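request received
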Amino acid sequence: MMRLPRFLMQGDRGMVIEFGQEIHHQYVEQVRLLMVALEEARISGVEELIPTYRSLLVRYQPLRIDFYELQEKVELLLQETNRVLAPAFVTDIPVCYDEEFGPDLMDVANHAKCTAEEVIQIHTSADYLIYMLGFTPGFPYLGGLSEKIACPRLSKPRTAVPAGSVGIAETQTGIYPLLSPGGWRIIGKTPLRLFDPQIEPPVLLRAGDYLRFVPISREEYLEISKQVESGFYSAVRRPKEVQ
Amino acid sequence: MAESTFLVVQPGVLTTIQDLGRFGYGSIGMPAAGAMDPYAHQLANLMVGNSLHEATLEMTFIGPTLVSKGSHRIALAGGDLGAELNEIPLPSCGSWTMREGDTLTFKGGSGVRSYLAVAGGWDVETVLGSKSTYTRAKLGGYQGRPLKKEDSLNVGSIVTSLRWQGSLPMNLVDEFFSTEKPIRVLWGPQDDYFSEKEKARFLEQSWTVNKDSDRMGYRLDGNPLIHLDKKEIISDGVCQGAIQVPGHGQPIVLLADAQTTGGYPKIATIISSDLGRPAHYKAGDFIQFQSVTYEEAIQIMKERQQQIHFVQDWIQSRERATSHLWHIYIDSKHYRVRVDEKPENQ
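response:
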């Protein structure tokens, strides 16, 4: 049985369903469970669901369902304890860690007092939980980076980080879906497109799933780039093994 | 067949195509964008017989110079940007016909934002369910960017054509664009990060709009608010209109292009009926907030819907009337005189 979350108003058309105030994988699971339940329930007047680390924001039309009616319906959904989550998926993200794509890899290695190869080995040997997508469309907030290769942000952020760049900031790691400014240490680049408005769904990843970085050579990078360009590449996704 | 386009002779300060926003993709981090003032946007559409969702041009400070290819019905709604049709000044809310070769210009005025609708709507590709321009991702609208000199805007096909044209009586819509009255908010979701005394100070003072304000958010300057304890939260979801207070205590009002998640406590959130009002404030203007209850907010929302219906009815009543526009020249001065024949039951 779940602990009941807090129901908070965000204006007259937003309901924040808050499971906790800190980052915890259990909250991520509860958010995901409720999100799936709400998607299936198709409650009239519910417009949009935005999951985060610890809460679910529900945008609704108050003239069709008011805050209190919606809260009752959500509480009923939360009481259905027999609900089982569909298994999470792990998406492979091929990454080329060559210097031309990862200008800060050596700095990260120096900071961790190890070799570049060891940084790559550590970075590619974990499944990262996708807590949420945000910042720019498709940007994954990931949990699970090894403390060993944690590294502070650049003191002066770059004005332009290319799309696909894989970076480290403190104990976070992530991928830039779009060319944007940024201060994360860039250690590599994926040829995959994390965000493409021309396809449905427009993003490769989903909150609550996992991803795993897979090291590739420069040649493989160019080959996959070509396949992505022509629309023939399909990302490798497999069910997450239960530990 | 006559061309059905507008040529952009000058782009204006910041002119983008917007509709009511790109909703449904918040879970992937996609901001909704859309018109900064959704009500002005809807009024402009209403005056040319478009659906209220149809795309309009959002103009900022100085609108574009447009030359009409073919004949078009246009409408303006919002602040006064000094619009002129063939050098004849236009009121800030109304609908007119542009004929082949006519030129619409903006000299700038007291207003900040205004919306230009064309009968049939601006014909651009729909991206993820919306025509709104989101410039940070270079997506939607006209090639994902503000208008540039020499762009060519296509017009879609007309659904309903209206005979009525002229200006909208300001008393019908004054309240929509007021920068005098306080902007109404609901407390929360993180007002418990502030003491009752700080919450009172949030309402009592007039906040100055900072120059670093844009479609994403307005930064406000004033006596800083003091957090009870923590100055950050673990990121949670953001609605348009949320007012977040970072560590320095100066509030930021999150608007059309707001990010979908944020890590600062949100002391209050603007009610949806007032969401378009910040669009009419410029740097240096004073903003004051007033708190209302949820029940009051819903009541105001219903009244706002009635006001829009009232404008709709008013236009329909004009539609049944006949009007004549006279151009009178006295001492080489030009006067426009409209004579309305009122429908029988008025």
